[in-house]
Description:
Strand order of the largest sheet: 7-6-5-4-3-2-1-8-9-10
Structural class: alpha/beta
Order of helices and strands: HHHHHHHEHEHEHEHHEHEHEHEEEHH
Largest sheet: 10 strands, mixed
Amino acid sequence: MTTCAVPGSDPIAAARALSDEVAATGIVPPAEVGPTAELLVALARRYGNTPFLPLEQARREIGLDRVGFGRLLDLFARIPGLRRAVENGPAGRYWTNTVLGLERAGVFDAVLDRRPAFPRLVGLYPGPTCMFRCHFCVRVTGARYQASALDDGNAMFASVIDEVPADNRDAMYVSGGLEPLTNPGLGALVSRAAARGFRIILYTNSFALSAQKLQGERGLWDLHAIRTSLYGLNDEEYRATTGKQGGFTRVRANLVRFQQLRAERGEPVRLGLSYIVLPGRAGRLSALVDFIAELNEAAPERPLDYVNLREDYSGRPDGKLSPDERAELQTELNRFRERTAERMPTLHVDYGYALHSLMTGSDVQLVRIRPETMRPTAHPQVSVQVDLLGDVYLYREAAFPGLPGADRYRIGTVSPGTTLAQVVERFVASGATVVAKPGDEYFLDGFDQAVTARLNQMETDLAEGWADRRGFLR
Length: 474
């Protein structure tokens, strides 16, 4: 039953397995147990594949009146296995990686009520520059912050760190439109956050993660995790993607040395990789396994902790793979899973929204927010980004210096006289809105797209009279 949303599963067999639990609830007449079980499986299959489906649309597709559908939803909530079936479905990572955690925190309600609340997630973007120029990156070529902005910018970041409520240990992360490790004060900022109990993840290309850097900025050892974006598996691939000669050789040396130092020092900081499967490179996943093995050999007692695999859909209409690409990538992903399970059993692999779907045999269909479905009020109660100048942005891909159109998504500036909480409160309380223009959807990363789709779904449910059940899973 818990796999009934997976392609190839037998819904009739799942309904038979579910019938006893439906009967045990005592609220379904015996003659209706079988048909009700079939409807519950149909509902799980829908939301395991299309998580942002409005309830009224689901009701119409299943063919029940509003009273009957409300009863079905109540019954669904009584059977935990059905919830697991949705989470195990092709689109399950939308639920488990993003939606349900934010639901538990209550931040969606704050957005829908247009009630000011401190952002659940705060991205600190401290990098003044970047040594790479990746072809899929939206950064304006040559754009950077002046070195003279570092002192004031780091003082501003320190004030934000001191302001963030300490009840959420994962409230902040360090990333950016530019490389964070180019900021020489990053280690001190990390130590400041760690002293308050925050678990900071650094998103980096690790080109500057040298032994000298770690020696000079000891606060980097206070990170909870380092997630390295890997742009290839040899120097030629790196040059083609980043425009940097010798990039892979240097990153590999830095990661190998980090592994050794981490083991020698007994540091708890986690190390992971983020690998984007670029078009035509699905076959390189076998080389990625070998690279992970090489890192593990540098410190056998402290192997790599995790890998996040993602696919680049940026240049494809509707975010879809061609049939040939889809077949190749599915084959290579399953081979990757088998090889990592055999050679590095402790490694955690996150396949993200789309690749998880592909591995279940489902068509890959990422959520695609368009200008007409972007929310004019966005979701600053969920997430904001703060750059080196203190400017606060609504979307993760908007906080790049000099990016055309991004200023419209800047909602204020943190300064000695203005806190982050005040910036968010003023934007929300004022009723300010941003009218999206063509191309603005590229300011939203995958997280922003999922959050927007969830809020749109919930708002539709509310408008159509499903307030007490809005959003299906809660």
